[in-house]
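Now read this:
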Amino acid sequence: MTTQAALPVDRTPETRPARSPFAFWTVTAAIALALAASGTPSPLYVDYQARWHFSAATLTVVYALYAGGVVITLLFAGGLSDRIGRRPVLIGSVLGLLASLVVFLLADNTVWLCVARLLQGLATGVFTGAASAALTDLHPRRDSRIAALVNSTSTSMGIAVGAVASGALAQWAPWPLATPYALLLVLGAVLLVVLAVKIPETVAAREPIRVSTVLRPQRIGVPASMRKTFLIGCLGVLAAWSVGGLYLALGGSLAKELLHIDNHLVAGIVILSVQGVGGLSQLAFTRLSGRDAATVGCVALIAGMALVAASVFLTSAVLFLAGDVVTGVGFGLAFMGGTRLVTQAAPADQRGQVLASFFVVAYLAISVPVIAAGVVSTRIGLSATFYVFAAVMAVVALVTLISTRLSARD
């Protein structure tokens, strides 16, 4: 990686702004809304497929472009708000999110759907990095543990609520492929004004905003001393987010094809039962250690996948939703456990690059296995693909479980 000349930095002393509950919860609401926007297309994919006649493989590529956009921003702009300030990054990325919603509204073919999804991923990646840092800065007691919990919970619940609201609007409101995005545009515009007017800047020393500043590649890597722990954490996030990604990309298709339920709201509820339950499980079991959370999460993932596979075989909607809920618990705890293991093991002076590496793995996990599932489903069908996917993820969860427990003895 090439090095760059030092840029002039504004060292003008600033008085650190008061940390207010209003600012903290406004940023929390912004995170929830941004992730709700990312979950909004999921119940609508079935309609897009019916209108433009593309395959499940193409669908998973459309979905995965979002994760690709996030990975790009992690590599090139992950620490941007540390350099130029939180407010300009928050405001600029929300503008990018609003632009992606406009493209969704105007999209009339698969290419524009891909453009909208990629733009959404790029904007969300920049936004979440700045918003996560802002939560810690703005928490009234500057409690990083509570800020991290609020961040992860608002992320999961935002995706879930976005999917359910989108499904309900698509089912009963006029213009199903436009109304959800129009509503998000209005809410996003209001939130943008509040962010611009009410959120204080918390970075005292800032660099000038230049192209070389914005597009500076981030350093990623893992110290040798924690590579074993990092690998275990990555296995956990691989199992959790591969399953979560499957539901976000193919949840509507699963409900429609496997259970013969053609209802947008049901597709949203399927996503809610995984993402929403995942967020709630993190709140309910927040006192668990990283290893214990990963252990319980992996057991729940294995049990949930088994229940869902059985529901597909028996064509049971009740068993399907029950399996989704158990899978949601596993998703939330496996992700929380892996994140805690990696965060706690990372040296303080290298935590940023370690977490950047970890989340690159997370977003690859949310996309690459799902693309593979989409490609395979065009050859062997969705039912058979789901059985294979469930078996592979159960094995990954089992390996993670064994590795986590063995590492506790070291």
The first helix runs from residue 21 to 39. Confidence is low (pLDDT under 50) at residues 1-15.
